[in-house]
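Lab notebook, bench 4. The sequencing result for the construct came back, and we need a structural model before the next group meeting so we can plan mutations. Quick request posted to the team channel:

Model the 3D structure of this chain.
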Amino acid sequence: MPAAVSASPVRTAAPYLPCPAVKPPVAPPAAPSPPPVGPADLAVGGESLATAGLSIPAGAPMAPAVTATSWLVADLDSGAVLGGCGPHEHRTPASVQKMLLAAALMPHLDPTRVVEVTRADLQDLDPASSVMGVVPGARYSIESLWLGLLLKSGNDAANVLARVGGGSAGRQGGVQAMNDEAHRLGAHQTHAVTPSGLDGPGQYTSAYDLALIARATYARADFRRYIATRVAEVPAGPGQPGFSLTHDNTLLDHYPGTLGGKTGFTDLARQTYVGVAERNGRRLAVTLLGAETAPLGSLGEAAALLNWGFALSPDASVGRLVAPDEKKYDRPVAQVKAEQQGPARTGRSTSWVTVVGLGAVAALAVLLLTAPRRRRAARAKP
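Done. Here's the predicted structure in token form:
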């Protein structure tokens, strides 16, 4: 149960500091304003995270300037949050939402089970969106579908897995399981409408919530194996050819210590990313939302944020990742006007002094920007 407001003095949200930002060369298309964040939700993880702006440890080097409108870096093992920009702000997830599907259903689906794909699984997919390549009437193992989901961001695989995992309620049952899992994890800014992350009305997440979801998925050995797989073979079956799946996350081969990651893109969400890397015994997760393709793209920005996080002292922290089923509120807070979206966002710094932190990933960015874009998706309905 939430702590009563009268139980302790009401505290204000963290002071607003603009996030260091790079202005993209092409302005993103206009998008509807996301819903505001309630004061109680801002409190999750600690009062230093109760901001729409920047939160980094006192005395820490300035975080790199990025185009992402919100991001978070956290220690996956200790749960310490090293820093973030608008960590609890509502944002559109795109395909990083597939990690929530994995968190919700992977514990309950036998990977050796073979299931048949139906026409209904595929009929509402944008033909230009990313798919694994399953066909109606063909049969695939649950493990092959997980690999197709995570390596190729298969929207078709997401629909099949949600339908099978949803039991008698079908695909919507799978989506409900995702929302139930988000609530169990304490990811209260997250609401799924589609299993794949294709845009849907009222579908949101936050950089903080994605770190909670990443922590849950990376705790599973099977997920870690799937997400780090470079190439997988889907075996042939009666009347259906086999085919290969190649991981489309290029950080696996270009950022040392990468343990895997999930990209996303829709016209509404822009570029999104969740990834984990290990260095000197530390596993850091990076989550970012609302990034643009230039100058670095989501993968280049993720690499810059990971470099910044690994350079911090192991005991540096501005908050923590709450544990599953933990009380929702650390302490009551009151939101201040500076934290509201809109005018506050226009105050984000665009100083190129802060871009120096991205120099180490400039060469990587060139490689990443040449990677093929496989993810176009329908805009959300008004």
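The chain has twelve helices and 13 strands.
Will bring this to the meeting.
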